[in-house]
Design a protein that fits this description.
single chain; mainly alpha; globular
Length: 324
Amino acid sequence: MTDDAPAATAPGLAEELAAFEDALARELESDVGFIKAIGEDLVRAGGKRVRPTLALLAGRLLGAPPERARLVALAVELLHSASLLHDDLIDGAATRRGEQAAFLRYGNVVSVMSGDFMLARVLRLLARSGSDELIGLMADAAAALCEGEVLQFQCATLKEWSYEAYERINEGKTAELMAAAVEGVAVLAGAGDAERAALRAFGLAYGRAFQLRDDYLDLLGDPARLGKPVGGDLREGKATYPVLRLILDEGLVEARLIVARHAAEPGDVERMIELVRAHGADAATRELVGREVDAAKAALQAFRPSPAREELLALAERERRRVA
């Protein structure tokens, strides 16, 4: 969706994002045709570049040298992109960013190994940083991402759903890497403990709001604006927050059955939407997004006003508006 993309309004940010795109293309260079093609697809498709934007804004917030913020931006985007290549294959997703998924275009082996190639480039970037602390931080984020994905699959397979598992899935899949994007810059910038903790708190809260909003729109969004049918999570057996409200708080057996059968029967998605709205689970989800946005914005009060802080505040507020 076009309005998903972060707005590069902070002075100089557009230029830094352009430099990031050039650097990303260099990191993905390969003389192996299929790997090169997937890398070119990634650069051309662009995507929202949320994580690199967070890293670059954190650098501006802290007054860090642009090349240090760019290194972190590259590492988090390559790690994120590698996970998407793997996820699309696991989920059987037919498209990614409006294009046919890589595993369908090039085959499973090429898709998996290209993802691994990106992970190797992450390792090279981290080695270049010369920071053991950054290496540890990114390794922890990568491990959390894997744990989140496996836990999500485990919950869907065993039909074991809980708020605790959902929160851990969201933090692992999304929030931890966003936190690493801003905290990693703080590490390379030599920021103090208080600034580093504030940025990590911002990244986690923003990441939780981002994923909650994504889950909300997957069920309750406008298919024309999403560019895909709603209910994708249901069809994969995932119980996201609005659905958990029905299963855990309302005890609706019908909702549990729809998730358990992966919304396989005609009208299942539409019926779940009816139930979510009828029981106020949509409003409860919007309220939770708002609380996470407020937490993200509160964390940034540790920093003095600046264009970079205002841009980060606006990014957080955008998540609230998207579900309004």
